[in-house]
Amino acid sequence: MKDVKCECGHVNPHGTVLCEACGKVLDERENKDQLLDMRYEGSARRSQTYNKTIVDKIWNFFSSVKVGVWLIIITLLASILGTILPQKMYINLPPDVYYEQEYGWFGKLYYQLGLHDLYGSWWYLLLISMIGISLVICSLDRVVPLYKALKAQRVTRNEGFLKRQRLFGTNHVIDDQDFDIVKKHLKEKHYHVREENGDLLAEKGRFSRWGPYVNHVGLIIFLFGGMLRFFPGMYVNENLWVKEGETTAVPETGETFYLQNNQFILQHYDKNKDKAFEKAIEQAGEVVKNYQSNVVLYKRVGESLPGEKPKLEKVTDYKVRVNHPLTFDGYSVFQSSFRSELKAMTFMLTNKNTNQTFGEMKINFEDPKEKYDLGNGYSVKILNYFPDFEFDKNGDPSTKSRVPNNPAFIFQMISPENPDGEKSFVAIKQTIEPFGDNTYKMAFKGIETKNVSGFIVRKDSTLWVIILGGILFMIGVIQGAYWNHRRIWVQNKNGQIWIAAHTNKNWYGLKREIEKVIEDTKLNMPDDQLQSEQADKGGV
Amino acid sequence: MATISSNLLFIAFILYLVATLFYGGSIKSKKELNEKKETNKWGKIAVVLTIVGFIAQLGYFITRWIAAGHAPVSNMFEFTTFFGMALVGAFIVIYFIYRTTLLGLFTMPVAILVIAYASMFPKDITPLIPALQSYWLHIHVTTAAIGEAILAISFAAGLIYLVKAIDQTKLNKRNFWLEVVMFALVAVLGFVAVSTVFSAAGYHEKFNWTDKHGTVAVVEYTMPAISGPHAGELLTKDGFKPLIEMPAFINAKKLNTVIWSLMAGILLYGLIRLILRKRIAAALQPLVKNIKLDFVDEISYRSVLIGFPVFTLGALIFAMIWAQMAWSRFWGWDPKEVWALITWLFYAAFLHLRLSKGWHGEKSAWLAVLGFVIIMFNLVAVNLVIAGLHSYAGS
Ligand code: HEM
């Protein structure tokens, strides 16, 4: 394909609509319209020029703003679907049960369509990636030609170009000094003024034209950052439970860091102390003020052999609270939840008939003993211990886990009368005496609990990419939205002074500015040809 | 302090009301409403009243902040009031760019409605749960509200455009939908009216009801129950017996409020129609006859341009920073987050559509209206209906 030479002498790339240098209309299709379409300066965009090969077609598809807008709208509508019912990460039952149970046939359908995990679905990700591709292609399609066209523009413009600007006007009589006054005013308004053959081009805010491209690059980087998460090692997200008093290795740190939980603290607002909230607290009942774990962070020193206790060196003390994570070495430890766990249970050996007691025993769940000697010939043996008791499929007692959620015991109670012992099965709120009536029972006395802090351990190496993308995006939108690209041409044509002006947005501001610029001169305010073209339709 | 604060809010409210009357006056007595023309005396008074009102409301905000010890944007009342204040603030800024008092006539009533709506929620100063104790949260919420308020100005300008551009001589699709928008505004007034009436009367009735898990609980209505709860059993003597009973998965109490508000809205709307003897939009038309269409079109577009970056910063970026601190993830697809994203995508689409020729003028004005509907949906429905982490309704 050949380049196009304009009558002004400038050689334009094939496909150019308006000559880059003088603005003459090169593409006849344009001629019909009264006003010029100034988007992208009428430069030669690949997408408008080629449409033969598959690559051309794909390129043209993704570089079209229409397609881009459709992608955005479809994503928007899809996102709405995901907010109708809670997504799977916010439910606490298996999804196949939850949706039908809570929302009936609708919930079932929602689940079957996969809408319960919409934002993680392949087609939602596909939509987002298509937006990403579109962003890359549409930006490339426009930014280079636009840059070239803006760089190649000359001061003196083709008559047709000036006449067909939205703001245009001619003047027959002017004073000699008017030109200088205008120039002075333009400079005061921070215009960059260029002069050639007695013609004038005043321009400002050209950099705002790059705003959209900067913000699209920011978005692309942001999306790329989101993708990085799928690479191993970039993103760690683990739950960590640490009991009070215990020290545990922080997961995914290669057993380098250890966290000791000294105390978990739960505070509520006190309506007597926090007077300002008195009424609200009365309304709401209890309101939590603080979740806090006082922790110590340790680092392992030297190598330790398997099975050996690692040597630890204290790194820091910290109070982990909501909104105040502990951060070290790229990791952050967040306070996320807590639970209470049984620590110990106390029983008293009691004679069922006389209610006389024969000493008490405390079973520590972390270290239950086999036999508790109560003196005077009384003792209790633990024959079996089920920390998380349930009856298994065969109806035999068994345990679900090793966490003492629902402890149960089989005791053998030895007394001077029964040196062989009586057996008793004791679980919370139930006692079974497998061999008939016992003389003694284990009377429940009390429990001790301890808190377990739930942490989230997070390492996110993608964060920097995301932050960079976000910052670039903001710079880009602000650049494009709060500044605009204004050009004012003041030129000698056929012994008249022509004024034409263009801005990519905010015509009102441009008009106000031109009024100021031509103050104290005989120049007339150029007409807004768009307004006169369509006049004021409709209305009263 | 808390009393000073609520008095200041009341003063601001009254000033806004009076200012609106003056905006109306400024238009009646004025021939040319466009560009460069100076504001007349009525208009100047209106603007001064608006600014004084804004300062009073700022006073409310600061004193309440002092009383609570945290920025008052942490429950429905506080947040919505702040949104109303931001709306007035955004109008003042845009006014000084474009100097048209007509915009005030359309913006101030919206702001007044927003503040009136806000004051239907419990006004107690609430303590902050740990997740909300963060500067980032307050920065996020205030910036987001300011962004939304600026975007809402484009709605007001869009309304002016539609009122002027749409032919009212006979009923068609366009003026029907415009009237629906007007009715929606009246319905908000309806909500405010019924809530005020029943709360002034101190109306209460209690029910035992059964939820979808079969648990029996007590629910207290503050308006007579038209829609009763599932398996509801009236506990209050002489209480109003529900006309219809709702299935368990519907929140009958909220639905009841909606029904009452709509009834009041219809009643009010009917009254207005009776007095005006034409559609509301048609009655407003003479007020806008002097403004140029592409001037309001530009105001509307410009507000989106100014508001979009602020909204992005507040509702997405600051929100992500806060979420990262509080929940350890900057994005969690919770409904409120998703709706902020939807709003953002919508305005992104708006800006791109403006790049192509056919989307200036009326279509653009409709988009501005739709954008405001999305913002309101996010503010009202997502908070009250689709509960999420951010939901203020429960606390
Ligand atoms: C969610 C995704 C997107 C966002 C947030 C976004 C944002 C923006 C913004 C803020 C502008 C400036 C508009 C103005 O100043 O009036 C812009 C311009 C633009 N965008 Fe996007 N955009 C997105 C996706 C896309 C896509 C997918 C395309 C591809 C077709 C696209 C093509 C363009 C074009 C061609 C411009 C005008 C450039 C110019 O005036 O030189 N955008 N975009």
TrEMBL record, chain A:
Domain of life of the native organism: Bacteria
Record localization: Membrane
Keyword annotations: Cytochrome c-type biogenesis, Membrane, Transmembrane, Transmembrane helix
InterPro entries with a match to the protein in the record: Cyt_c_bgen_Ccs1/CcsB/ResB, ResB-like_domain
Name of one Pfam family that matches: ResB
Transmembrane segment boundaries: 67-85, 122-144, 213-231, 463-483
Membrane-related topology note: Multi-pass membrane protein
Domain ResB-like: 65-417, 424-515
Identification of the protein by name: Cytochrome c biogenesis protein CcsB
UniProtKB/TrEMBL annotation, chain B:
Record keyword Protein transport present: no
Entry-linked InterPro entries: Cyt_c_assembly, Cyt_c_biogenesis_CcsA, Cyt_c_biogenesis_CcsA/CcmC
Topology in the lipid bilayer: Multi-pass membrane protein
Compartments reported by the entry: Membrane
Ranges that cross the membrane: 6-24, 45-67, 79-98, 103-121, 141-163, 175-201, 258-276, 304-326, 338-355, 367-389
Record keywords, A-Z: Cytochrome c-type biogenesis, Membrane, Transmembrane, Transmembrane helix
Residues annotated as domain Cytochrome c assembly protein: 74-177, 267-390
Pfam families with a match to the protein in the record: Cytochrom_C_asm
Main localization (coarse): membrane
PANTHER family (UniProt xref): CYTOCHROME B_B6 PROTEIN-RELATED, HEME EXPORTER PROTEIN C
Name used for this protein in its record: Cytochrome c biogenesis protein CcsA
Species assigned in the record: Neobacillus rhizosphaerae
